[in-house]
From TrEMBL, chain A:
All residue ranges annotated as the Ketosynthase family 3 (KS3) domain in the record: 9-410
Family in the record: Belongs to the thiolase-like superfamily. Beta-ketoacyl-ACP synthases family.
Species, as recorded: Rhizocola hellebori
Name recorded for this polypeptide: Actinorhodin polyketide putative beta-ketoacyl synthase 2
Gene3D superfamilies: 3.40.47.10
UniProt xrefs under SUPFAM superfamilies: Thiolase-like (SSF53901)
GO molecular function: 3-oxoacyl-[acyl-carrier-protein] synthase activity
TrEMBL record, chain B:
InterPro entries: Beta-ketoacyl_synthase, Ketoacyl_synth_AS, Ketoacyl_synth_C, Ketoacyl_synth_N, PKS_Beta-ketoAc_synthase_dom, Thiolase-like
Protein name: Actinorhodin polyketide putative beta-ketoacyl synthase 1
Signal peptide: none
Domain of life: Bacteria
GO molecular function: 3-oxoacyl-[acyl-carrier-protein] synthase activity
GO biological process assignments: fatty acid elongation
Gene Ontology CC terms: cytosol
SMART domains cross-referenced by the UniProt entry: PKS_KS
Species this protein is from: Rhizocola hellebori
Length: 413, 422
């Protein structure tokens, strides 16, 4: 298989953002609340947590699926698919694309997943084992599996271009966008991409609790404290972001369309566990910068992965400082207001990065009272920092050794 | 300079035999490995057959810790991965690890382990608030299948891009296509790719039962999967894994590697029609085939063999038959077409990779494996489906296709590679 050099340099821009976050539905509400430092983390309401030691998460509030989706879609979709379908509608709407404008074979769909429609899966598993095979939903075959969001999105909007689904745990929200950009470079005009995730049901909760990564605190202000001396694990959440990507040429032809920014660089690496090897996060960032043709001087903010455990926070601080030097670049983690959203988390960070570039403001990291001085990071704490953001670096890591990085920048025609 | 992705190593865990040789013997003999399910008591289910792999993890060299920790699908991938690594002749420890990646296909991940753990924690479905007391420490790794690609990455020491590609029943084709794209664009020089699936647990069996997609020929399990036959009544599930070492052509030539074939073209399309249904016109699959052929710079006449999806459902048989005609025109009638699922069942996210490996061996051996159990051709399926008996043929290019839930349609062109210097 050979590369097509003519389109290889096609620039990729973002013209639509749709998102569902624990602290805001839609980009406008999310951005306003995020800049105010308003957190969406709180006690779980979706299931009874009395039997579990972990009781808080970032739930998307005020989401009534029936307000947004046809009734026939409800019995066949998990909560996370409903969020994804609605975010997709908003992304297309924001990009000025009606379903009839979607360029059919010229539009790819690439989403990230971690656990599929898990709540749906638990319900059907219970029916199977309690009531018997005849009681299992006819939709189980696809409502649970990892590919569901790409399938449902493509059907809803008649997108017939390349379809893909990537799973790299919490790095997936960047890998999907990287792969969508790859489709554009191969000659596809537009792509619908990103990640939205939710697994707030008891069966998922057991998995989260044994993962060893959840915070032991149930105080929403003290549970998820990345880069803090009291870092003790993370809080989970639901939501994420979906984007309309298109080639710069396509966007120019559709003028006056809003261009949030350009996906200038992307790379992914892996930590092999071979003794003596450097962790791969820094290399992912370096490769993404090289891909963008930029140096660290061009980057005005880093959206950190912010794992929230001392070991991983230290490794990330070392990666950032290795590139930028101590206190060399503003670093932020707005996910302290949402919790970690699995396949959706890195996509939401990418949305924040694009809004930063668009708006000229860096959103804050909240709840950090004792930033670990040894990390030597310039953390943007509590209050937004108003400044021009020419380009932003977004970092993400997935359990097992996955690292991904994306560089977004201002788009100048 | 254009970079080409070639296959230099393969490994297989398949129903009917472990290892590429046993797998090929089964295909070449046209023997079917479908049988009554033995993994669990299938008596409550509508379809009680599957193509099971006789897989003994101890005999295959896995440690007790690996066996406890890894889902059966991950065990398959490790065993097939080790065979592929050995087959490639590559010394992985000497490669630049940053130029080495993994792309693994799987449709349903670690479902078998998840279901087993669910039954324990929920007291056989009695509790909605699943009990955490008995949860195994690696439950989270079953929860998200990226753990399986990570396992292959540890096996070979990969530090480049690592991914699970999960597009349902086309995952095993799409993962290899994804890997080929990474090599072509220059992101990696070697990628361990392929697919794995161990879906034979009640929840997955019931998924196909409730939509009546699976065969009910329970009294005759060995001939139950009958693609392109008018008596066919649905698919038969399978399990297995095929792992493929994909390498940049010059990288492979420099070390004098044995090259099976080149991934000359790959494309996927969404049908945007229905999550489980297929439109009989086969338009989107034809689009995928056309795109893959264009990328391969091949005319229809170059295709010597079509490896069909051939799942054994009426809608699939008609859909892909239409797609072959729509894309290849008259040449579709002159090209042998066969379906491996008649022999090894439908192993969801693994089958695409198993079909690639079988197609590569067809090129190597000059033998086209047949469609088993095809005695009474469906008059609406009027191509040459190589019924029952394998056929000798010199094949230089193969088209292999996949089709799956979610509307995914994928096509790949495998082509014999010319000798160096020509």
């Amino acid at each position: 298989m050979s590369t097509t050099t003519s389109t290889e340099k096609a620039r990729t821009v973002v013209t639509g953002i749709g998102l569902c976050a624990p602290n805001g539905l839609g980009p406008t509400a999310y951005w306003k609340n995020t800049l105010r430092g308003q957190s969406g983390i709180g006690p779980i309401t979706r299931f009874d947590t009395s039997k579990y030691w972990s009781k808080i998460a970032g739930e998307v509030p005020g989401f009534e699926p029936a307000e947004h989706l046809q009734g026939r879609l409800l019995p066949q979709t998990d909560h996370m698919t409903r969020l994804a379908l609605v975010a997709t509608d908003w992304a297309l709407w924001g990009a000025g694309l009606r379903s009839t404008d979607v360029p059919e074979y010229d539009m790819a769909v690439v989403t990230a997943a971690t656990a599929g429609g898990y709540e749906f899966g638990q319900r059907e598993m219970q029916k199977l084992w309690q009531q018997g095979p005849d009681f299992v939903s006819a939709y189980q075959s696809f409502a649970w599996f990892y590919a569901v969001n790409t399938g449902q999105i493509s059907i809803r909007h008649g997108m017939r271009g390349p379809g893909a689904v990537l799973v790299t745990e919490q790095a997936g929200g960047l890998d999907a966008v990287g792969h969508a950009r790859r489709q554009l470079r191969k000659g596809v005009r537009m792509a619908l991409t990103g990640g939205i995730d939710s697994s707030l049901c008891p069966w998922a909760w057991v998995a989260h609790q044994v993962s060893g990564s959840l915070s032991r605190s149930n105080d929403a202000r003290k549970a998820y404290l990345p880069f803090d001396e009291d870092a003790n694990g993370y809080v989970t959440g639901e939501g994420g972001a979906i984007f309309v990507l298109e080639t710069a040429d396509s966007a120019a032809q559709r003028y006056p369309v809003r261009v949030y920014g350009e996906i200038a660089g992307y790379a992914a690496t892996f930590d092999s566990r071979v003794p003596g090897r450097e962790p791969g996060l820094r290399r992912a960032a370096e490769l993404a910068l090289a891909d963008a043709g930029m140096s660290t001087k061009d980057i005005d903010v880093v959206f950190a992965d912010a794992a929230g455990t001392p070991e991983l926070d230290k490794a990330e601080a070392e990666a950032i400082n290795g590139l930028f030097g101590p206190h060399g670049v503003p670093v932020t983690a707005p996910k302290t207001m949402t919790g970690r959203l699995f396949a959706g988390g890195a996509s939401l960070d990418l949305a924040s990065a694009l809004l930063s570039v668009w708006d000229g403001v860096i959103p804050p990291t909240v709840n950090i009272r004792h930033p670990n001085k040894d990390y030597e990071l310039d953390l943007v704490l509590d209050d937004p920092r108003h400044q021009r953001v020419r380009a932003a670096l977004v970092l993400a890591r997935g359990r097992g050794g996955y690292n991904s990085a994306i560089v977004v920048c201002e788009y100048n025609r | 300079m254009s970079r080409r992705a070639v296959i230099t190593g393969v490994g297989a865990v398949a129903p009917g035999g472990i290892g590429k040789k046993a797998y090929w013997d089964l295909l070449a003999a046209g023997r079917s490995a479908t049988r009554s399910i033995t993994h669990f008591d299938a008596s409550p289910y509508r379809s009680r057959m599957a193509a099971e792999a006789d897989f003994d993890p101890v005999r295959e060299g896995l440690t007790q810790q690996e066996i406890r920790r890894l889902d059966r699908a991950a065990q398959f991938a490790v065993v097939a991965g080790r065979e592929a690594v050995a087959d490639s002749g590559l010394t992985f420890a000497k490669l630049d690890p940053t130029r080495l990646g993994v792309a693994l296909g799987s449709a349903v991940g670690c479902t078998t382990s998840l279901e087993r753990e669910y039954i324990v924690g929920s007291d056989v479905g009695n509790k909605w608030e699943v009990d955490q007391t008995y949860a195994v420490p690696h439950l989270y790794d079953y929860f998200t299948p990226s753990s399986m690609a990570a396992e292959l990455a540890y096996l070979v020491g990969a530090e480049g891009p690592v991914n699970v590609v999960s597009t349902g029943c086309t995952s095993g084709l799409d993962s290899v296509g994804y890997a080929a794209e990474l090599i072509a664009e220059g992101t990696a020089d070697v990628i361990v790719t392929g697919g794995t699936e161990a879906p034979l647990s009640p929840i997955t069996v019931v998924c196909f039962d409730v939509i009546r997609a699976s065969s009910t020929r329970n009294d005759d399990p060995n001939t139950a999967c009958r693609p392109f036959d008018k008596t066919r009544d649905g698919l038969v599930l399978g399990e297995g894994s095929a792992i493929i070492i994909l390498e940049e052509l010059e990288h492979a030539r420099k070390r004098g590697a044995h090259i099976y074939a080149e991934i000359a073209g790959f494309a996927s399309r969404c049908n945007a029609y229905h999550m489980t249904g297929l439109h009989p016109d086969g338009k989107e699959m034809a689009e995928a085939i056309n795109a893959a052929m264009t990328q391969a710079k091949l005319e229809s006449e170059a295709i010597g063999y079509i490896n069909a999806h051939g799942s054994g459902t009426k809608q699939n048989d008609r859909h892909e038959t239409a797609a072959f005609k729509r894309s290849l025109g008259q040449h579709a009638y002159a090209t042998p077409v066969s379906g491996f699922k008649s022999m090894i069942g439908h192993s969801l996210g693994a089958i695409g990779s198993l079909e690639i490996v079988g197609s590569l061996l067809a090129i190597e051996e000059g033998v086209i494996p047949p469609t088993a159990n095809l005695h009474e051709p469906d008059p609406e399926c009027d191509l040459d489906y190589v019924p029952l008996v394998a056929r000798e043929a010199q094949v230089d290019a193969v088209l292999t296709v996949g089709s799956g839930f979610g509307g995914f349609q994928s096509a790949m062109v495998l082509r014999r590679v010319e000798e160096a210097g020509r």
